[in-house]
Design a protein that fits this description.
Arc Repressor Mutant, subunit A, Rna Polymerase Sigma Factor, Chain: A, 197 residues
């Protein structure tokens, strides 16, 4: 609907009658005002690219602000522009709010909670550093082939087992078994109790 079509409806009441009636608490005037201006307000809200639901919210908020501030309207003949301005402000507020809100998936929320818990726990950083230190010492004690493989895997600088095989001069078929043996050895290390789960 264009603004011309929205404004073409023949008003049953003049703006003066509507404003005076709403100020006096007349429900008939209120109903007439909403019927007369609702199409225009919905059209304006949709022009801001709001979804039907958000556009409905913008219109409802416009009516709420209208009720709250109807006494501040100085000239009833400005009612159309006044309502349109309120609606535009509500639309801008809703679109700005939507841009700030980034929806989080369930895994993101869980990760965020875990991160906040860790940040709130002063001992957690000390514990993590201690675990990293013990793990680094245990990896250093591994046989050279296992040590090199685990360091490459932890650094995650390789793209594939083929590239890893070339970099370490290891047969590609031995990478998995070598990794399993190294991890099994680390799990048996009493110094790493609790680090590897």
């Amino acid at each position: 609907m264009t603004p011309e079509k929205a404004a073409r409806t023949t008003p049953a009441y003049s703006p003066d009658e509507l404003v005076a009636g709403v100020r006096a608490g007349d429900e008939t005037a209120w109903r007439a005002m909403s019927e007369q201006y609702e199409p225009l307000l919905r059209w304006l809200a949709r022009r801001y690219g709001l979804s039907a639901e958000d556009a409905g919210d913008a219109v409802q908020l416009t009516w709420l602000r209208c009720l709250e501030h109807i006494d501040q309207l100085t000239a009833a003949d400005r009612l159309t522009g006044w309502l349109a301005t309120i609606c535009r402000r509500e639309c801008i507020r809703l679109t700005t709010k939507a841009r700030r809100e980034v929806p989080l998936s369930a895994p993101d929320v869980i990760q965020l909670i875990d991160t906040l818990r860790e940040e709130c726990d002063p001992c957690s950083e000390v514990t993590r550093r201690d675990e990293r230190y013990r793990l680094s010492r245990a990896i250093t004690a591994l046989p050279a082939r296992q040590r090199l493989l685990l360091r490459e895997l932890l650094a995650q600088e390789y793209q594939s087992y083929l590239e890893l095989s070339r970099r370490l001069s290891l047969p590609m078929g031995s990478i998995g078994p070598t990794r399993r043996r190294a991890l099994a050895r680390l799990r048996q290390d009493p110094q790493l109790a609790g680090c590897l789960g």
